[in-house]
Protein 1
Amino acid sequence: MFITIDIGGTTTRVASFPRFDGPMDVLDKFPTPDTPKAGMRKITNCLDRHVRWPIKAVVVGIAGVVDAENKKLFSSPNLPTWVGEPLAPYLEDFAELETVYMVNDTDLGGLGEAHEGAGSKKGITAYLTVGTGVGGTRIVDGRIDRSTYGFEPGHQVIDVSDYLAATEASKEGSIRGHLEYYISGRNIEQRTGKSATDIQDEGLWATFENQLVAALNNVIVFWSPDTVVLGGSMIIRNEYISFAYLQK
């Protein structure tokens, strides 16, 4: 039995695979708790109820910059209270194994798209996800590309004037001028006071499209991919986005 866990800024999902190449069984989905202890307790309780033993490996995808060696978050604008807490020991003790991997959640999403989704195992896939935050990764020949601190296309500066005009320090993920400031679900909600799913302002979505176009141009010219894949709740369920316009 193989276990995959997706700890996002808003939602946590737990799934299992009876075989390495077998079908996925979604075990549970719940709002991500405020603290790592509460989160890991819900995850292990879920596994205790649903999983057939033995567990051969556990893979954790989490929203933020990951210290893979020590299996903890280095930084995360959407999970600040989880930063610095080693997470693997909870699962290693529970599952009685040392094979626990922890990586950035977007890296896992891009890997999945390259192998089983809209990307390609061979060649270069650029994956950009827009949801609570904005993330992205580069997959080369079916593997996550090397990087020093991970890929952070959500923090590219797309409005230099806004970036230079900011008079006070902002926390990561809410920095004016950065792509994430304009198009992430969390920042749109903070600026408008509404959930992005409830906003019907066509002008706002036209601006969203143009800011996304600027980011996609940068992704293409810097990463030189064969395929660009878009994901995340702000993309998949957004009836106001024209993919023909983005492609043009």
Protein 2
Amino acid sequence: MPLCKSHERLAHAGLIENEEGSPVKLGHGVALAKGTAANVVINWAIKEEADKAHPKYQIDKKVGAFYVH
């Protein structure tokens, strides 16, 4: 999923919960009408701190080293 710079940095800081899934998902009984969906559930959330024990965190730290500050 393409992200803006701010959200990409949150992701690489390990601060997005459920990042492996879609940012939104459709709820039960959703009817699609004219290209829109009702009952959209936000699947991502911002964590207060990263799970430093998660293997992905180590990868994210290496990716972060390439950012131009």
Protein 3
Amino acid sequence: MAQFFSSLNKTLAAGVCLLVAIIILAGLATGQWINLGGMNWWTFFMRVLHIMSGVMWIRSEEHT
């Protein structure tokens, strides 16, 4: 497992796959799909971008 997360590309791909899985599972569980006009979706999306940016930043700091 440590080898998988040692690569930034693999870590980001895992994050995107997890995001897609969460969106699909939430849609199936609630019966409501993404509403791009609502603030809840954009808040969730920005939170995920924030976390992924933090992962990239921390990872880049380890290599300097």
